Amino acid sequence: MKSQQIRRWFYAIAPALLLSSLLAALSSQAVALGAPSVTFIVNSNNDANDGTCDVTHCSLREAINAANASAAVVDTITFNIGGGGTQTIAPTSALPAITDPATIDGTTQPGYAGAPLIELDGTNAGAGVNGLNISAENSTVKSLVINRFGGSGIVLTTGGGNVIVGSFIGTNVAGDADLGNGMDGIQIASGSGLNIIGGSRPAGPCVSPCNLISGNDDVGILISGGSGNLIRGNLVGTDVNGTSPLGNTFDGIGIVGSIHNMIGGPSKNVGNIIAFNGFHGVSVREDASTENQILSNSIYGNAQLGIDLGNDDVPTPNDDDDVDTGPNNNQNYPRIAWATSWDRRVRVTLDSAPNTTFLIQVFETQPCDRNRYGEGKKLIGSKNVTTNATGYVALTLKVKRFVKNRQITATATDPNYNTSEFSKCRRAS
């Protein structure tokens, strides 16, 4: 029953999230709750803790402690350090976990103009220490730079419904150099669900709600046991412009033992750029990881597969009638029969479950992986198709313009939101 409730909630709100800003949604929630709020202003970049947060002195450590102790439903931590501009906070030990709902708002630092100014530098925090540990539900992190912690940049546990926007996790303040955290960039663990990482992304450099999650020593974003999470509009493995490599050491995004997550979404403006990572672009591991949509992303330049179902480092072969189980039910991928650039047509076939409707997404890419399977750099077309009684369908798609001699690849997503790996490439004529 819980799984069904998560699925209904998740897919009911997804279209709305595409049409309204995350901040407006949060504001509406606060109004509906009628919740009092207390604001704690961080006015010092040192790590002192004398037990109070006031106009004389308030460190981030003191502000988190005060927010945790507050009786307000949702507290806000803002910043007004020095004369404004970039400020670095270097904790000398682990910061307190956020155990009561709070918004940590880096956009309030004077001089903020779209790029984060508040840096959390974990160099001196200790081995294995995470940047922020959030166990409270309905908390928000806005526009922080979190780097050089021995553990992960942000860890979400237990509570769900959290939002992370506009933050650089694993880079310098400029977003153009690797200052990675020792483990994951963002880790969603211990059943934390219904979290939102990012949002719709405008063209150009990564600005809020886009997050830059690059340079970390493990996975960029790891979802372990959480359900109903939305990961959209982020740059994972690139610099702030989404063009130069700052890859995470392992996968860009990893899903382990988790269901009903959405990586990207049905429209291009919520797709993530997932590139230059040391293993897979997106990996879906363990048989329990099903119904995970991977849609409209730009995935390219990763060392292994663009999408890997099973974390076995090789393409998962198609099977007759697609009756197997496994990560995302090992959904069969389509086949590209031909692609002609002069009239923008692509011929696609799919062998999968009989009498079933699938979403086919077609991508242009260059080059293919060494095994001749694709990654999908540029989404050029999408269409719903229905297989016949034998599980077969063939169609010719009219797509957006693509370049002769580039490679074409595709994915298939079933009605239960299981997305396949990328298909074998076909060179466009």
Give the helices and strands, then pairings.
Layout: H1 2-19, H2 22-33, E1 39-42, H3 60-69, E2 75-79, E3 87-89, E4 102-105, E5 118-121, E6 132-134, E7 140-142, E8 144-147, E9 154-157, E10 163-165, E11 168-169, E12 186-189, E13 196-198, E14 212-213, E15 221-224, E16 230-232, E17 235-236, E18 253-256, E19 262-264, E20 273-275, E21 282-285, E22 293-295, E23 298-300, E24 307-309, E25 335-340, E26 345-351, E27 357-365, E28 378-386, E29 392-398, E30 407-413, E31 426-427
Parallel strand pairs: 1-2, 2-4, 3-5, 4-7, 5-8, 6-9, 7-10, 8-11, 9-12, 10-13, 11-14, 12-15, 13-16, 14-17, 15-18, 16-19, 17-20, 18-21, 19-22, 20-23, 21-24
Antiparallel strand pairs: 25-26, 26-29, 27-28, 27-30, 30-31
Task: Summarize this entry quickly.
This protein is mainly beta. 9% of the residues lie in helices and 30% in strands.
3D structure, described in words:
It is built from three helices and 31 strands. Strand 25 and strand 26 (345-351) form a beta hairpin. The chain has two domains: 2-314; 319-429, Immunoglobulin-like. With 429 residues, the protein is mainly β. Residues 1-6 and 15-34 have low confidence and may be disordered.
